[in-house]
Amino acid sequence: MRYTRTAVALHWLLAAAIVASFCVGLYMTSLPFSPQRLKLYNWHKWAGVLILAASALRLLWRLAHKPPPDVPMPLWQQRAAHVVHVLLYLLFFSVPLVGWAYSSAAGFPIVLFGVLPLPDFVAKDAALAEFLKPWHGRLAWMLAALVALHVLGALKHHFVNRDGVLHRMAWSRTP
Q1: Longest dimension (CA), the chain
Q2: Does residue 18 surpass a pLDDT of 90?
Q3: Rounded Cα–Cα distance for residues 13 and 81 (Å)
Q4: Cβ–Cβ under 8 Å, residues 102 and 132
Q5: In 3D, which of 157, 160, 171 has the Cα closest to residue 80?
Q6: To the nearest whole percent, how much of the chain has pLDDT over 70?
Q7: Looking at the predicted structure, is the pLDDT value of residue 53 above 60?
Q8: Confidence band of 71 (pLDDT split at 50, 70, 90)
Q9: What is the pLDDT of residue 75?
Q10: Among 145, 139, 149, 151, which Cα is nearest to 48's?
Q11: Residue from 112, 14, 113, 116 nearest 59 by CA
């Protein structure tokens, strides 16, 4: 049994956006102050807003559409997968929201695509910005670790168990 095409599309869109945003985040923080760095910071913020929106759509879709039945596996693996998925969803929202709060507190508003100013998430506050900045990075690293664990679990099921778990979220309709 497979996930719906919409669920598959949202899964892979979110996966690509998270990986790209994480990589841009790592790269941009290593750059000296420059127009390129400022441009990448804006792109990173835009990606965060889009990740937040895609996460909301994905959660709403998931709540409205029952997933396919689980592939038979030991109970501890089912529970571990459930915990990882819950933590992934929490981080899908918390990473961009903490980033938005940091940007607002630091006095750097988000102007989506350079044309749509978003409201500040919190008031400008230098102390709050200093507190939030490392948390955005820590949460992003936690998300990266969980994404890696999720990918490793899917690959283990595909190559070791050969139980069809990976095919449930594949673009193709044939195994």
Answers
A1: 54
A2: yes
A3: 20
A4: yes
A5: 157
A6: 98
A7: yes
A8: confident
A9: 93
A10: 139
A11: 14
Q: Residue 80 corresponds to which tokens in the numbers above?
A: 């571990």
Six-digit token string for 69: 């039945």
What is the token pair recorded at 129? 């910005």
- Euclidean distance between CA atoms 171 and 107, whole angstroms: 42
Which two tokens mark 14?
A: 């979110």
pTM above 0.85, yes or no: yes
> CA 154: distance to chain centroid?
17
Burial of 49 (0-12, 13-18, 19+ CB in 10 A): middle
The arithmetic mean of pLDDT across residues 3-26, rounded, is 96
The domains located in the chain, with CATH, are 5-169 (1.20.950)
Question: Residue 100 contacts by C-beta under 8 Å, 6 or more apart in sequence?
Answer: 45, 48, 49, 52, 110, 118, 121
